[in-house]
Design a protein that fits this description.
The chain is mainly beta. It is built from one helix and six strands. It has a six-stranded antiparallel sheet with strand order 1-4-5-6-3-2. It starts with a strand and ends in a 13-residue tail after the last helix.
């Protein structure tokens, strides 16, 4: 996903409205995060936590105004990553 304020993020996990992203940029708790998928769909997240992980940041938060279609798009992004439920980034 291309972040609107610059940088990029990859979806790591999705559980209902909860998301985890691996981002090139840090975000403060409570901050809004917005970006566009390759399909141009807008993803908005309210950040709960952000931690450094190597050369990136693990951003955890809640989807804001997510439609069923957007959730399906996000789920499809995780599908190729392997086993169901434990969608962790590849090392």
């Amino acid at each position: 996903m291309r972040l609107q304020k610059g940088g990029s993020a990859d979806l790591v996990a999705l559980d209902g409205d909860r998301v985890s992203l691996r981002s090139t940029e840090a975000f403060a708790p409570g901050a809004p995060l917005a970006g566009n998928l390759e399909t141009s769909s807008l993803v908005r997240v309210k950040v709960h936590r952000c931690r450094r992980q190597g050369d990136a940041f693990l951003v955890e938060g809640r989807l804001v105004d997510a439609t069923r279609r957007l959730r399906e798009e996000l789920s499809a992004l995780l599908a190729p990553s392997g086993d169901d439920g434990s969608n962790e980034p590849a090392s």
